[in-house]
Structure formats: structure tokens, C-alpha cells
């Protein structure tokens, strides 16, 4: 299948860039309710007062199937904004980053997933193999500081499976152009020893980077929630999955030799491969998905992987399905992966991307409320039962003026108050689970 431009980090998602008018100024909530909710979020995340050179914030850790902070369960209601580093290179666009952090925090969101890579593209962090642009690195430094200032933790992805922002394609091209690449195939990223060595150089450079604003190395900064090894890894040239499995084992062990403090995930889409039982492969949206070289359970069993990830895009997987069919399918998809976390992996499961395209069949904006709510309910019910469903991360949030970064999934908070309200309700529900039923005054807040 051909890769189309669109959502960076996905295939078969057509590009957009629609201009949308604001639908209003949102809903005014009782001041007391907001104060209670914000106070609880502050308590949940810890002391976020920024002090250069100090680290007063606790790291998120794992205890079995749950994330924990200071011994208390931690649930994620988060969002994707892949563009943070890119928009922080120029001083003129940095206010967009501040605005999205402020917006996420006001809705009670706790984690933002973003790219900590840009290989050979505009505003490239890595301009050629092993060569980095200090100006762009300083932009990433600033993103981390700004996230902490707003009480947001970061899930940092380290390379793309796709061509957007360079990805594995750029590594292979560099190696091939310099005359030492074994193959021009994109999948040689996974099996070429020279490319693997260069990717390790990149990993070590990122993990040991000393933030010029704080003096703290990234591996010692608890503002970083976790590392994601690769966005949506696939190695279709080896449908057995052995090539990708060996790469995951090698790279996750390498990361953990440098950074033992942070959580680590792979970045999988969640498809079951040929090693998985047939009943699990039947959960895939089609037989083709088991031939992509990835395998959710097998890959996630690697001991250096702290939590598993999956994505949710039924409008791309089940193109002709109606909304009810999609909701029914994702219920099975989410349940299956949470059960894997509880019964097989003994690890948390986080759904690190989910969205509903405006180009979905018979799309209406009210469909997003139904779709999002079905996902939020599954996470909430798992949290209530101390299950492995550790959170969900919406694709994607933007601010006004970023139409060129939008796709068919983008949301600009403030345009549709019903979406903002639903996100905040989920935040408050998860806080209530974490701190007890009496922690949130349900008569004075939206949850």
C-alpha cells in the first residue's frame, strides 16, 4: 500500500489543512469546581516549581500493570502534539507551544506525546548521521522546561517508521549515499549493523543530552514520562517478525544500559503477528495486518519494555463500517489488549494514539463524542478495577494558526466545547479513581 501525506506517524491518512471557525468561547464552569480539579491535578503530578539544576519531581514508575508516582496509581489522559520541537526552534512560534501546554493543563491532561526526532528535514535535529544541530537541541530543551512549567509530562518518540520527519528512510538513504549501506530497502534500518550503530549514537546523544536551561541530563529529568523507541514500527520484508524482534531486543537493552530511571515502550500499533494464537490474530482488522513484521504480545514481552502501546484508527482499518460497527470493533480491540496486559504481559497498556477522521464514512462531529467516549469509558472502567488500561492519548491537538499541521484528526480546543468538556470529564474521572470517590465534588465540577 502506498503511503500518503497526512498525519505524521501514520500511513493511509490523507492530508487536510482545513480552516475552521471558532464555534464559541467554550463552557463556563463553576470556579470552585475548576479550583478543586486543578488542585488535585497539582497534587497528582507533584511539585512543579521550576528550579534550575534541581529535580523535585518524582519519576513515573511501573508496579505490575499500573503506572505509579510516589506509590500512588497514575492514569494518563493525554494528547499528541508532534510538532512541539519544530515550533520551538523559532522564537516567533514558541507561544504556540506554551498555549497548547496551557490548554492541555486546563483540561486536566497530564501527558503529551511528541517527536524528539527530526532526521534531515526542515528544522532537523539530526542533520546527517551522528551530526546534530545545537539550535534545534536547544529548542527541545525549552520544550521540556515549558512542559514542566505547565505541569505536563512528555512521552518522547525517538524515530519514525515512516518518512515524515526523516525516519528510518532517511537513515537508510544516508548510509546508502555514503557507500556503506547494505541495502536501499527501508527495512535495512533494522538489520544493517552500521545503521544500527548510528541509531545507537542517536539514542545515547538524546538520553545523555544536558539541558542548557537546567543543567539536567534528559535521562535524569522526571518531566519526561517515558521514551518511545519508534513510532509505529513495521518490518514487512520479514513477516515472521524475527528481524523486528531482534532489533527491539537490542535497542531496548541499549536504552536501559544508559537510562534506568525512565519507562520505555516500543511504539507499536497493536497488531497481532504470526506467533500470536489464531484467536488473537482474528482481533486484527484483517489478515494482512499479521504480515507487517510486528507482533503486539511477542514484542511487548521483551523484559526491557515497561509498558505496551496500541493505536486506535477504525476508520482506516474498517473503511466501509458505520459508526456503530466501529465502536463495537474498538471495544473488542481495547478489551483484548487490556487482557493481554493483565494475563500475559503483567504490564500497563496505553493507547498512545486514537482518532476519528473527518473523512470517515458519513462523518458528523457528534460521532467524535460517541467514539471518544467509548474509549474513555473503557479506560475508566479498567482504572476502577485496577486493571492494565493505563490511559489514552488523543491524536491530535493544535492551536489557531496551525492549519498546515492539521490533518483529518486534528482538534483545536475551543472550537467544539462538547469535545473539551468530554476530555475534562475524563481527567476528573481518573483523578477521582486515583484519589478516591470523595476527592472531587461532583456537584461543582463537570465530572
Automatic annotation (TrEMBL):
Q: Per the record's keyword annotation, is Membrane included, yes or no?
A: yes
Query: Where does this protein have coiled-coil stretches?
Result: none
Task: Kindly list the GO molecular function terms attached to this UniProt entry.
Answer: mannan endo-1,4-beta-mannosidase activity
Enumerate the catalysed reactions: Random hydrolysis of (1->4)-beta-D-mannosidic linkages in mannans, galactomannans and glucomannans
- Is Transmembrane there in the keyword field? yes
The UniProt entry's GO biological process terms, in alphabetical order, are:
polysaccharide catabolic process
EC class, as a word, reads hydrolase
> Which keywords are on file for this protein?
Glycosidase, Hydrolase, Membrane, Transmembrane, Transmembrane helix
- What is the name of the protein in this document? mannan endo-1,4-beta-mannosidase
**What organism is the protein native to?**
Musa troglodytarum
